[in-house]
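Example record

The entry below shows one chain as it appears in the dataset: sequence first, then structure tokens.
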Amino acid sequence: MAKKNVRNTRGRIVNAAWRLFYEQGYEDTTVEEIIEESHTSRGSFYHYFDGKDALLSTLSDLFDEKYESLRPQLAEGAMSAMEQLLFLNRELFAMIENSVSRDLLARLLSTQLVTTGERHLLDRDRTYYRLLRQIIGAGQAAGELTAARSAGELVKIYALCERALMYDWCLCGGEYSLKDYAAQVLPSFLSGFLP
């Protein structure tokens, strides 16, 4: 029970912070506002985070929450492995466009480039990587995806494609729809996944 409360408190702080970052901008959001929005205490906030900057790395948590919310639709078994990969991408990129500012995404990507500590986006224990391994492994077992490369290699390529698309979107100043552009180009990138 204590572990669940820890997750809930930390999750409330993360969700409140990103909601405020999106609505007000990162620079204009204070720790006090995050505490108030999350209905937690100053002590709870500083128990989990050293400050506002420490919240930048939690964007991967929001991505993983989105993937968890999509699991039931994947479990229905109506989609092929390739359709599941494209569905996950479409849903994640729609979430990014609608609730994560481009500036914050760019800031996260840049911190991951220069950090000497944890690179949260590359954490292979994240829901993101576990779900991709599951989909790709099942797709290979069903003969829907190539077995010429390991599931791990295909996961790495897929993640690389998604990061490249996010990076380019940020680099181009969000001048196009991330979700729509990915829907156009990702199938070509992933054509090498087919047997």
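Notes for this example: The chain has two domains: 1-49, 53-193. The two ends are 46 Å apart (CA to CA).
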